[in-house]
Amino acid sequence: MTVVGPFGLSVRDQALEADVQTGLAAVEAGLLDATKSEVPFITEAAQHLIRAGGKRFRPLIVMLAAQFGDPYAPGVVPSAVVVELTHLATLYHDDVMDEADVRRGVDSANTRWGNSIAVLTGDFLFARASHILADLGPEAVRIQAEAFERLVTGQILETAGPREGRDPVDHYLDVLSGKTGSLVAVSGRFGAMMSGADESVVDILTQYGERLGTAFQLADDVLDIASDSHESGKTPGTDLREGIPTLPVLHLRAQAAQHGRPEDLELVALLDGDLSDDARHAEALRGLRVHPALEQARRDTVRYAEEARATLAPLPCGYAKSALEELCDAVVHRAG
Strand pairing of 102-103 and 106-107? Predict the structure, then answer.
């Protein structure tokens, strides 16, 4: 049993491992090639987060999904480059919106060069992804456009907040389905589709990606509270400091409203205060780390990961299916 990539997926078959490793190496080269510009500064900014590393979670799903068809088909690697470029572009924009200082263990682009350069670099990556898509055909362009619309809609809904009378947790899960689930779903879909897999397999792997993507983001929510910067690659409590309502916080607020326990109300009041103060921020993190709301968010992560696993049931048994199932375990493991 060996390990593939920074995400730490265990692979039990040498042929599958070789295919995945070769595919991911080709994706890495494709990312660097796609972000080259005649302007050296643009190249530097566009490759900033690529060179910082990353789990390459979405390209990994593309490679595994392609195993249900021809994994060497010419569209597989370019489609993986497209989904990763799109993901990277959203990170540049997210860091501006969140005023983040650190991403993947290095200075965020907005910290290094300012908000304008970070936003424009994200736009540059979207443009390069679109250029690659044009060679993959109109169906691929349509799929990516629909996913991008869902992604942006999710971001807008997160910013706007739940409408009157809407349960905040349900609203948030819808946000995640758009912001994260949509692009991971496309990863499964592109991998299967570009490899020529049967339409039923394409549908299964699309559904799998949707659920796994939501679980992946929920695990990030838990990590934002529970991890240190070395483990997560970004400053702990970034979402907390910016007032972004992640799932542990939403569960805390629901419990405080339902039960009215003094300790819950005190923690909510702390969260509603000025968390730009380092001492208050650290106190809020300590409170959330020992609160049942964090464990509840972990259980939600497990539930979505298990739903992703269940969608794989109709697929033929084999090493690729086992690897996709292990990804569900890996996501749960990230959340502790």
Answer: antiparallel
Task: Kindly calculate the radius of gyration of the chain based on its CA atoms and give it in whole angstroms.
Answer: 20
Q: Per-residue b/e over 86-114, b at no fewer than 16 CB within 10 Å?
A: bbbbbbbbbbbebebebbbebbbbbbebe
- How long, in residues, is the chain? 336
The tokens of 132 are what? 């690659």
Q: Are 58 and 83 in contact (CB under 8 A)?
A: yes
Q: What is the DSSP string of 173-217?
A: HHHHIIIIIHHHHHHHHHHHHHTT--HHHHHHHHHHHHHHHHHHH
In sequence order, the β-bridge partners of residue 22 are none
pLDDT (tens digit, 9 = 90+) per residue, 272-319?
998 888 899 999 999 999 999 999 999 999 999 999 999 999 999 999
Q: Write down the pTM of the prediction.
A: 0.90
Q: Residue 186: phi, psi to the nearest 5?
A: -65, -35
